[in-house]
Every structure is written in C-alpha cells, then in structure tokens.
C-alpha cells in the first residue's frame, strides 16, 4: 500500500483479475500463482546492498540509523515510500515475471502476462517512479538463459529507463520505448540515445 493519495494503486491488479473472471476470459487461459522471487533471484540484477535494504526496511525501522542513511542513496521516499509488506510486494512482482519467462522458456505458453509487473524504472541500486525491483529486467535475464536475443517493447507514456540502462551495452537485448519526451518524467529517452559499445543501435 503506497498510501492514500499516491497515484500507484496496487488494487488495480485485483480489478484486472476480477474483470478477466467476470468476462469469462479465464476459461480461455491458464491462471498461475507465481512463487515469490528469492533473494538470489532479485540479486541477478540488483546490488546486494540495495536488496538487503529492501528486505529489512519497514515503517517502524525507517528512521533508525542503519536505514535512514540509505534513503537518499537508494532514492526511497515520496514517490517510492516504505510501507508494510514492501519486500513481499517486490518478491511477488519479480516472481511473476520470472515465472512467466520460465513458462515461455519451457514452451508451456505462447503468451505470459504478469499483471503485477512492468516496473520499468527501477535501477540496479535505486528505486524510481514507484518501482523498487525491476521485474522486467529479471524476466529478460531468465529468457536469455534459453534465447539468443530478446526484443523488449515498452508502450508506457514514460520512458522505460531502467530496462534500457540495464541492457545499454549489449546486443542480446533490443529495447524499444514509445514514450513522451521532454519536460516529462523521467526526462530520458532522447532519440539520439541508441546504446553504446556492442549495444549501439540496440536501444531506441
């Protein structure tokens, strides 16, 4: 729970599920309950210090010396507040996308959707734009275990900066983001930013 008045509303996930059931769309698909991502799974992308912080911080410990000195470092605060169950939420979101990627890798599904995913702003050691753990990057890393290359297409109005940054120097993942640019969060994603080194022209 991000707090009253916060634009991020996790209950939208439940609403999406209820719409699927009430329109009887669930009869045409398999609904899976994901396993929470383990600490080691999240560490495949995120730094150990950052994951340790997320797994131990709570509203009660927020202002103790150990955690308070990390709030600015990890960009945790107004947009990305600390709330009860924060790490469980991160585990569920990440586990859903990793689990979806596993299904695709095993050819158990042609399409796999994680309604609690898409948290594309989170960086290796930084929360951003309501995103704490980048489930998309973790899902792509899982896909790369089987597939030579992955194409990532982002149609959010905000630039998918966290995903682009994660794969900016590799040609194994092409990131394509259709977003509003200019004086608009997060302020990245210029048309001239196309990747570097092996990843040049693999970011659009």
Give your account of this protein's structure.
- The protein is mostly helical.
- It folds into 2 domains: 1-147, 3-Layer(aba) Sandwich (Arginase, Chain A), CATH 3.40.800; 149-204, no CATH class.
- The protein is built from 7 helices and 2 strands; from the N terminus they run ααααααβαβ.
- A two-stranded parallel sheet has the order 1-2.
- Helix 7 links the parallel strand 1 and strand 2 (173-177).
- Helix 5 packs parallel to helix 6.
- The longest helix is centred in the middle third of the chain and has 20 residues, at 86-105.
- The chain is globular.
- The mean pLDDT is 94.
Give a concise summary.
By secondary structure, the chain is mostly helical.
Calculate the terminal CA-CA distance, rounded to whole Å.
33 Å
Give the CATH H-level superfamily of the largest domain.
Histone deacetylase domain
The amount of helix comes to 25-40%
Find the count of extended strands (DSSP E, 2+ residues): 2
Give the number of domains.
Answer: 2
Mean pLDDT: 94
Low-confidence stretches at least 5 residues in length (pLDDT < 50)?
Answer: none
Tell me what the CATH architecture of the largest domain is.
Answer: 3-Layer(aba) Sandwich
The neighbouring-strand order within the major sheet is 1-2
Radius of gyration, taken over Cα atoms and rounded to an integer in Å: 17 Å
* Number of H- or I-type helical stretches: 7
**Largest sheet data:** 2 strands, parallel
Order of helices and strands: HHHHHHEHE
Approximately what portion of the residues adopt beta-strand conformation?
A: under 5%
């Amino acid at each position: 729970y991000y707090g009253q008045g916060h634009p991020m509303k996790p209950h939208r996930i439940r609403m999406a599920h209820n719409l699927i059931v009430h329109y009887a769309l669930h009869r045409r698909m398999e609904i899976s309950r994901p396993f929470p991502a383990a600490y080691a799974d999240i560490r495949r992308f995120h730094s150990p210090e950052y994951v340790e912080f997320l797994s131990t911080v709570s509203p009660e410990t927020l202002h103790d010396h150990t955690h308070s000195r990390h709030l600015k470092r990890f960009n945790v605060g107004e947009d990305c507040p600390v709330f009860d169950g924060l790490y469980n939420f991160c585990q569920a979101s990440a586990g859903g996308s990793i689990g979806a990627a596993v299904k695709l890798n095993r050819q158990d599904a042609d399409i796999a959707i994680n309604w609690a995913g898409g948290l594309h702003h989170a960086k290796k050691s930084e929360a951003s734009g309501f995103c704490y753990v980048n489930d998309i990057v973790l899902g792509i890393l899982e896909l790369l275990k089987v597939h030579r290359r992955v194409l990532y297409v982002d149609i959010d109005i905000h630039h998918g900066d966290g995903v682009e940054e994660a794969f900016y120097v590799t040609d194994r993942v092409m990131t394509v983001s259709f977003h509003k640019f200019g004086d608009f969060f997060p302020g990245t994603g210029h048309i001239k930013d196309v990747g570097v080194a092996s990843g040049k022209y693999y970011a659009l």
